[in-house]
Design goal:
Blueprint: H1 5-20, H2 27-34, H3 38-45, H4 48-70, H5 78-95, H6 97-106, H7 112-139, H8 147-163, H9 165-171, H10 179-196
Helix pairs in contact: 1-2, 1-6, 3-4, 4-5, 4-7, 5-6, 5-7, 5-10, 7-8
């Protein structure tokens, strides 16, 4: 058994899922790309479905930790907290671009795994975003706004580069895996934050925080 074969299996699976689709990828395809025996996949994940569930769980566990790390900043202000949350998420997605592309695409489908993710990780994410948004509106730092629709807009901004990667690279000639993209795109998200949510009479705009 090769060293780090579990990580090699996950990496191979994500690459194949992105190019051939989950249904079009076999256990033997994954094993061949990872350079392992197919039995290793059964050992670590039981089945292809188990491997898929592992990818989802591992991704969202790390994703939520980054949101939770920003929450203490809520004591300093909702805008500072939201800015750090968005920064953490965007850098995480770009650092894990192949996984992010696959996860975002799969989350647009209707399946048992997706419904489970919706009822656990995404509900928790919504709770965190809602807490930050409602705190900002309560203190007057944010304009009055529908938290649900604000979350929809935020999620759209955060997922578009990964849900439409070919449009981003082939039409706009922007590459989401580059640090330059993360920095520039984060600036644009913060401009949206200023124009849509931030009550500029309350204090300094979010990009100056």
């Amino acid at each position: 058994m090769r060293k780090n074969s579990k990580e090699a299996i996950v990496s191979a699976a994500i690459g194949l899922f992105n190019t051939k689709g989950y249904s079009g990828t076999s256990i033997r395809d994954i094993a061949a790309r990872a350079g392992v025996n197919p039995s290793n996949i059964s050992y670590y994940f039981d089945s292809k479905q188990g491997l898929l569930e592992y990818c989802f769980t591992d991704y969202f566990e790390r994703y939520l930790v980054l949101i939770e790390e920003a929450l203490p900043l809520l004591e300093s202000g909702a805008a500072a907290c939201l800015k750090k949350t968005l920064e953490n998420i965007l850098y995480f997605q770009c650092a894990n671009i192949h996984m992010s592309r696959f996860i975002v695409r799969e989350m647009s489908l209707d399946s048992q795994v997706v419904r489970e993710i919706m009822s656990t990780y995404y509900q928790k994410e919504k709770f965190y975003f809602q807490e930050v948004l409602e705190t900002g509106m309560r203190t007057g730092e944010f304009r009055k706004h529908s938290p649900d629709y604000a979350i929809i807009q935020l999620k759209g901004l955060l997922t578009m580069p990964f849900l439409n990667p070919h449009y981003i690279t082939e039409v706009l000639h922007v590459f989401p895996y580059e640090r330059y993209f993360v920095e520039k795109y984060l600036e644009q998200i913060l401009l949206w934050l200023d124009g849509t949510l931030l009550n500029t009479q309350f204090g300094m705009p979010s990009f100056a925080i």
